[in-house]
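dumping these here so i dont lose them again. two proteins, back to back, each one seq then structure tokens. dont judge the mess
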Amino acid sequence: MELAIVGLGRMGGNMARRLVQRGHRVVGYSRTKETVDEYAPFGIVPAYTPEEVASALTPPRIVWFMYPAGEPTEAAIFQFAPLLQAGDIVVNGANSFYKDSIRYAERLAVRGIRFADVGVSGGVWGLENGYGLMAGGDAEVIAQIEPILRDLAPAPEKGWVHAGPVGAGHYAKMIHNGIEYAIMQAYAEGFELLRRQSEFQ
């Protein structure tokens, strides 16, 4: 398959590399030329403007955004939207609030652009070990991006899920984060108690 990854940070860049390693054609774009050039040697097709991204892909296009949640992601999606056409797919891989993704989907639907929200977990280890992926969107859209999800995941049948309609992916990621951070806090408090155990004797 082919797709563009917009945002080649530590997560987006390694996701692009993993997909290239598995035979996908990946167009890479980031806000600075230096970042794009950094990843070009890994087999990513470099694009230096949104227009180059759109022209480098054959419709129906898949454009996957990996910018920080909130204003950076919203600005990027709607900078690209006028360059896309009905039937293209926007994937929001940011750690977005699920209601924001629902709102993005509604705005894009006016143009006939389809949408999926995918919560991504895996950090800098995802390149080697794979990513946990929680996808929200219409079944038809998820089926279209399924080969990408399968290759980003630790194994084709493990580590990714279609969680439900638009918004469900980021809702699931929100729950995931809440559990993860609570466990980390519990670990930290446990280690602090061990460190200070002499005070309680």
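---- next one ----
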Amino acid sequence: TRSQLARLLRLNLPDIDITAAVTTRVGLNVTGSSQISGRDSVPGPWGAYCPPPGATVPGIRDSSGNVTTSGACSGASCITGTPPIQTDPTVSSTTFTQFGDISFAELAAAANKIVGGTVTGVSPSTLPGPPVSCNYGSSLNWGDPLNPLGKCFNYFPIIYAPGDLHMSGGIGQGILLVGGDLTVAGGFEFYGPAIVLGRVRSTGTGGHIIGGLMAGDADFSVSLLSGNSVVGYSSCAVTRALQGSATAIPVLERSWAQLY
């Protein structure tokens, strides 16, 4: 006789503590025409894939109280949120390295892309087929956040840089993990959570991060957002990225079920 068994699985999602547009541990200097917004937003073409926006969160959540603003952002005029700046001493190094049952190292080990140095030209990529399909194997394909009809619209890779990373231009989505410092220029756009263990520098034609930015500042230096950098909170961008990159693991108890 034969019997057929099924194994019960559950999605293992990291519990990333993004409760502000920007979360820092050492401090942040915001200048130029930068914009930081804690208003929950739905990315332009995602309306059919997101619930209505939720409550507004802090623009900046920092443990040190060392947030400075200057230039066009003097008086924190470029920061919106409830409150615009929140000093939260509970933010610690583990905020950036432990996400529920999943650690930064475990997320990094599950990365679809390993990058480093200066990266340019990130953009959606497809294979000609037939049928046309998303080119998951391209190191520069980080999904397609702006085209709901695109083959890579639902592709949310985990991207890991073990050391420093310099992003210049391009567009992507997913979960971005940086073990060193992150430098952004050239109008790079990213949708989802970006978690940086070092500091962040966004200068010139700065980066646009829609979802949430976390900068642990491992070397205790202050991060800098300048130029026309934009960081906007989006619970939908975070949720879609986490769900899209989740891994299936067996249920610990009674994971097997007999079908017949």
